[in-house]
Design goal:
Length: 192
């Protein structure tokens, strides 16, 4: 049996202890993951491509984690959940306002709203002033699905956030908020 990887792991744990004055194995796993992955980022050379690739992959993992909980509450996707949130938050929005708020393309947004309406989670009304505008409201069934998913997804949220220490989660949130504001500015100012 080859003992070299085990010896390497022991040496890495010694380095971790010297750098951090810490013996916690969970903290060591975070440190080890960062240490090993930092070399991969340096070797890649295209840091922007790596960043976008990682965000894309994380989004896919997050959808995968939520799949069973969504299904349990009659929802097909996270996008449907966020549509319910947007409708409740906006009150009685037009369909266009929902699409804009959730960053949904018109065709995709229309399909999701139609499915939610047929499932009894959303109801649609004609605007009292402009008869061309359709407004939507969340129904009690939609509120129950939204609230149930929110309640039942607590363990998913902890898993999705990984075992990063709280201070590093805050730093990550700050970076992601910056990126979200940056791209929101571009998206919402685009006339096309």
């Amino acid at each position: 049996m080859e003992a070299s990887p085990l010896i390497d792991l022991i040496h890495l744990f010694e380095t971790f202890q010297k750098e951090t004055k810490n013996n916690n194995l969970t903290d060591f796993s975070v440190w080890l993951n960062k240490t090993l992955n930092s070399d991969a980022v340096k070797a890649d050379g295209d840091i922007n491509r790596t960043l976008v690739w990682l965000i894309h992959r994380l989004a896919k993992f997050f959808k995968w984690y939520a799949k069973n909980t969504l299904s349990k509450h009659g929802l097909v996707s996270m996008d449907e959940y966020f549509i319910l949130i947007a409708i409740e938050k906006l009150g009685n929005p037009s369909k266009t306002e929902v699409y804009s708020s959730t960053i949904s393309e018109i065709n995709t947004g229309t399909q999701m709203l139609n499915r939610l309406r047929m499932a009894g989670m959303v109801k649609e009304n004609i605007d009292s002033v402009d008869k061309r505008v359709r407004r939507v409201q969340i129904t009690p069934k939609g509120k129950k699905a939204k609230d149930g998913f929110f309640r039942d997804s607590e363990s998913d949220l902890k898993l999705k956030a990984g075992n990063l220490p709280p201070d590093e989660k805050i730093v990550l949130i700050e970076h992601l908020q910056y990126l979200e504001k940056f791209h929101s500015g571009i998206y919402f100012s685009d006339k096309n």
